[in-house]
Each structure stands twice: as structure tokens, then as C-alpha cells.
Amino acid sequence: MAWFHKHRGLMPYVLLAPGLVFLAVFFLVPLGFLAYQSLESGNIDFGYAFTWSFGNYGTAFTDYRPEFIRSIEYAGIATLLALLLSYPVAYWIAFRGGRWKNLLLLMIVAPFFVTYLIRTLAWETILSDNGTVVRILQHLHLVSPGGHILATGTAVIAGITYNFLPFMALPLYVSLEQVDPRLVEAAQDLYASSWKAFWRVTVPLSLPGVVAGTLLTFIPAAGDFINAQLLGAPQNHMIGNVIQSKFLELTDYPAAAAMSFILMGAIIVAVAAYARAVGTEQLSGTAV
Amino acid sequence: MTDVLTRRDLLRRAAASGAFLTVPGVLAACGGSSSKSSSSGSDHTLAKTLHFSNWPLYIDTNNKTHSHPSLQDFQKKTGVHVQYTEDINDNASFFGKIQGPLSRGQSIDRDIVVLTDNDRYLALMIKKGWAEKLDKSAIPNIKNLVAVQRHPGFDPNREYSLPWQSGMSGIAYNDNLSDPVLSVDDLLENPKLKGKVTCLNSMGDALTIVMLANGDDPTKVTDKGFNAAFDRIKKAVDSKQIRQFTGNDYAPLLAKGDLAAAMSWSGDIAQIGNKHIHWNIPKDGGALWTDNMLIPKGGNVYTASVYMNYVYQPSVAGLMEAGDPKKNITGIYYIPPVIGSKQAALKLNPSVANNQLIFPSAATLAKVHLFDSAALNNQKYLQQWQNLISG
Q1: CB B240 to CB A248 under 8 A?
Q2: This prediction's pTM
Q3: Residue-range domain boundaries for chain B
Q4: Measured between CB atoms, does A51 come within 8 Å of chain B?
Q5: Residue A233 contacts by C-beta under 8 Å, 6 or more apart in sequence?
Q6: What is the average pLDDT value for chain B, to the nearest integer?
Q7: Residue A192: count of CB within 10 angstroms of its CB
Q8: Are strands B197-200 and B242-246 parallel, antiparallel or unpaired?
Q9: Is the four-CA dihedral B186, B191, B192, B193 of positive or negative sign?
Q10: Which CATH class is domain B167-288+368-390?
């Protein structure tokens, strides 16, 4: 202990060390190998050689632009839908949940006790051509008779929205839960209708949750390939499907690695633009 | 009932996602595993344990105890315990998993693995020198190998590989939703089936079937023949006739009625056992594929060879294939490569032994063909095919 007293300044670094070492070993080192691989050329028959082939990036982007755009589009729509769906739920649990709060939160997380793949396959049944959902939509003339939802972009977006919903709902709940109801009361006393108080007080205070939730949803959704694989047609495939097939079917490791980096870059740009638009302080929640 | 798990289990997708972690760079970073006991010595002593990796639901199983009677019997006879792992869900991801250590000359702790001849990886394992030569002196029963399997292109003298099971690829349809679908014309172009059809995602299977329908020879693929078949499938994708490319995940979709017809594998349909779902070799012919046992570099050659000899006994092959309803044993239900296994199966389970999908006659087998192995390794074809099915 005496040592720590003497070297007080080192304490933060000691505490940071386990996390940093973990990230270095399991994130940075593999990332370095991936970067190296993305600049290789060759094939599985004759081996791969490091040749600074930046061309991998060019061809990856020009050949698969539609899939990159589709990934960002589907992930964006799914994130927005997840936000619209979870906000009222999180709001209700935070302010009206009462003693049921924990149970309700558990219900949001409950689907996560089942593996991702099985949850997605469940949607194959829910959206089945002969299932109730499609029948009702056909009845309402939202789906043409004999039409289907499975194997369309709608099914893929629905699957992604569902699979990532808790990532949106939980951060929203946490930030809404911290809103002091007295602030809303004060606003109502002083100047606002309850609607206005909601927009002027509750929503701004919950923004850190919105930002965290959208990032946690959007980032993994953009790289997802399971939903497109199982619920989509070939026309709905996302960049994750292409990367998967390059890595595993074509053993074209350099192209797959390059695409992974492009996807990572695209996400970083999107996130940076978003952070700039809403203000980075929302991310850390220091605005309050 | 409908979600029967089958050999080419759809969990391959889960495996696929996991396999992202196994790209060679990552493996290199984490340092290879393995420093196992099983040495590849040519001495004729049996190891204590045989490590056998196979596809799911691909061996005889006692439904009550979930044990594998043929493996227990092998242990009784030889004293070798078989550590049987069902960890191959898909050729490509399994190859992705093992190619890292093998390329660095490390053992993968397995004595037998099973790979398919209509995917490129089986041939690649042999070509790269990642397979051990069989100890044929320990496999006298190789004489029971069916004639058609004796000289495959990837291993002309069967020095490295022996068939485990074969299967046929053809067309299945649901008679509640459609008239019989017996031809590729119907499957890909009948407007009544629009959006109710899937195609197999394996290039070897799909191209064989469509090339035969086009009058081209799938055992000797030319650019012209490939392009004609490819364009025909692409047209069906663009017109939304084909709604998805699948592994065996077509099975639940067919049973639920989401699909009217699907390009599919014989064994899956035999396993579903739904009376409304019928499987046929298409009018112009279907595809044949065979899963082959290999001893990966570093595996115990003698022990593995003794095991291969054991499964090439007709009585053992018959039990493994047909099971035994009296003892509650389920069989494999694909196609065994062992002469005499049908006679053995007849005694145990006549209905399976007489099933044309499991013990096909010579006339049936004449209608199915093996895809050209050179085309399987043609990077241009593979790239074109993968772009069609995944992007």
C-alpha cells in the first residue's frame, strides 16, 4: 500500500491496464493482422504474399458499392425503427413501471436468452407465407394476394430491428430513469403543457441514452449478415454476406479483409458525423 | 416435427459466424494450438483414442441412449475409443478452421475428417499434402468399395481418401402447393412457381442440374456450358422466380408450405418423412456427391485405417445405413459406398433397404453425375457464383 501512496499518479494507469491489455491483445493485434492481410495478394492454391496491393480496396468498393449502401440503409432504417419502438416502452417502464420495473426489463432482455440464430429463424416462421401476419396484411391489401414478405428487404429490416431492440431499449431506459420528475413538474408549473415539458425537458435529458442506443444498434446492424441470409432474397444481401462469402467460400482473404476495413471506415465516418450533429458531450452524458 | 436437423445443418451459418474468428491472421496472432500425442508413425500399434470429426446426424444413433452402436462395437473389438465430434457443418468453414494450423505444419488433433467431393477443399487438402496416405495393408475391405467410386479425379488410386456416404441432388416439391415439378424448366421458368422456389447454394449441385437440362456435360465444364447455365439461374433470380439460395434450410420452408419446390438433397427429404413432399431426380438428370474420409497430416494413420476397414464390412455398413428399428437405432439414410450393405440392411430394416433414395438401383445411379472438379477450382466461376448468391 505504501508503494501506491508514493506513486499515486500511477494509480489510474494500473486500473486501466487490464482493459488496455485485453484490447491490445484481442482487438489491436488481430486488427493489425487484418490490415496486413488486406494488402496481400494471391490465392489459397499458391499462397498469399504481402504486396501492398491497395487495389483490393478500390475493387472492393467499386464492385460491391450497392451492398455497402444497402447495409448502411437497412441498418439506418432498423435503428430508427428500434428508436421509435423502444422510446415509449422505455419511457413507460421508467416512469410508470413502479414495482414491475425489474420484471418488465427482464421481459425486454428475455429473448436474448435464446441464441441469435434461433431468434432469426423464429421470424422465418412469423413471416411465413401461410402465417397469420402475412394473411392479415393480404386482407388489408398491404401485401398482394400470393405475395410474400419473407425474402424481401422488409423482412430483413424487421429481423434486424427485432434482434437489436434491447440494445436500444436498455440505454434509453437508463437515461430516462435518471430524469428527475421534479424538473418536469417545475416546467409544467412555470410555463409548459405536459407535451411541451416532454419535448423541452425529458427528451433533452434522455439524449445520452438515445445516442448510446443508436450507436449500439447501428454499428453491429451494419455488419450483420444472418438476417439478410435467412430472411432476405439475394437482392437484399448486405456487405456482411459478401465478406462472409469472400472469407469462407472463396478464401479470398485479402478482399474480405479490405472490405472489413472499408465497412469499419464507413461506420466510423457515419458515427463521427452523427456525433458532430448531436454533440459529442451527449455520448458521455456530461450535458446534464 | 418439421425442423429436422440434417447433415448439412443450417447451423452452418452459426458456425460461419464463429469462423470469422479463425481467419489465419487471427490464429497466427493467438499462436497455434496443438501438441497432441497422436503421431503419424507407421508402426502397427493402435492408439487408445481415435479422433473423428464428422457432419451432424451422419452416423447410426441409438435414440434412447444417444450413443452410436457401431462405434461402441468398434471399441469392443479393437479397444480403441472413438472420440466422435460432429463439428463439420460446411466444407468451407471447416477448411477455414483447419487450414491455419495445417499450413504451419501443425497437427489439428484429428485422425479422420470428412469432406465433400463437389466442393474444392477435398482436392485441395490432397494437393497441398495435408492428408496422410492410407495404410492399405490395414484395409483389406477396400475390395467392398463400389466400382464407380474407385478412381475419382482428385485421388485416382484412392491413396488418401475413402467414401463415407454419397447423396443425390435433385428437385423436391410439395404436392399441396404444386403439380409435380420434375424438370428444371418447371423449377426455373414456370410462372406459377414464382417466388416459391429455392436453389442450392453449392455451385457443384446447382450447375450440374441446370447444365444437364441445357444439354451440356457437367463432368467436363466448358465456359460456354457454364455461362449458359449461370445465365439461366441468374435470369430466374432477377425475375424473382428463385427467392433464396439455401443449404438444407429449404427443409423447414418446404414443410411449412413457404416453398412449392426446392433444389434439394435426397437424404434430407428421406429424413423429413412428410408424405406431401416428393423428391425426384430431374428429367434430364441430377447431381451426385460423395463425402470422403481423410486422415489429416499428423493423424494416426494405422488406427484410422483400421477404423476405415471396420466400416467397410458389409454388416457394419448395413447397420450404420439402415439402423435397426427393433433396437431403436436410426441410420444415416444417405447412400453407402459399400458392396453388400444392402443385403445386411434388408435383414435389419427392409423399408429403408428398399428405398430408392438410400439404396438406389444402377438405373437410378446412371441418372446422376459428378460435377467437373477442375471447374470447382476455377476461381472465375467461383467468384461469379458467389456474387450471384451473396451479393
Answers
A1: no
A2: 0.82
A3: 12-160+295-312, 167-288+368-390
A4: no
A5: A151, A152, B237, B240, B243, B244
A6: 88
A7: 16
A8: parallel
A9: positive
A10: alpha beta
- How far apart CA A103 and CA B81 sit, in angstroms, is 49
Q: Where on the phi/psi map is residue B34: left (φ > 0), alpha (ψ -120 to 50), or beta?
A: left
**Cβ separation of B258 and A150 shorter than 8 Å?**
yes
pLDDT given for residue B37 in this prediction: 40
Give the CA-trace dihedral at B372, B375, B381, B386, to 10 degrees: 60
A49 in reach of chain B (CB within 8 A): no
| Residues in chain B closer than 8 A to A64 (CB atoms) | 391
Chain A closest-CA separation from residue B217 CA (Å)? 24
The architecture in CATH of the region B12-160+295-312 reads 3-Layer(aba) Sandwich (3.40)
Give me the CATH code for the A60-284 domain, please. Answer: 1.10.3720.10
Burial class (CB in 10 A: 0-12, 13-18, 19+), A64: buried
Is A119 within 8 Å of chain B by CB? no
| Domain limits, chain A | 60-284
Cβ of A151 within 8 Å of Cβ of B244? The answer is: yes
| Residue pairs between chains A and B whose CB atoms are closer than 8 Å | 117
Where is A49: in which H helix or E strand? Answer: strand A47-50
Q: Go through B366-387 and write b for each residue having 16 or more CB atoms within 10 A of its CB, e for each that does not.
A: ebbbbbbbebbbbeebbbebbb
Give how far B362 is from chain A: nearest CA, Å: 33
Three-state DSSP state, A15: helix
DSSP A198: I
Strands A40-43 and A47-50, bridge-based pairing = antiparallel
Query: Of all helices (H) and strands (E), which one includes residue A89?
Result: helix A65-96
Percentage with pLDDT > 90 across chain A: 74
- ipTM passes above 0.90: no
Question: Which pLDDT belongs to residue A280?
Answer: 61
Q: Which tens digit of pLDDT belongs to each residue from A102-129?
A: 999 999 999 889 999 999 999 999 999 9
Is B193 a residue whose pLDDT tops 80? Answer: yes
What's the confidence (pLDDT) of residue A5? 73
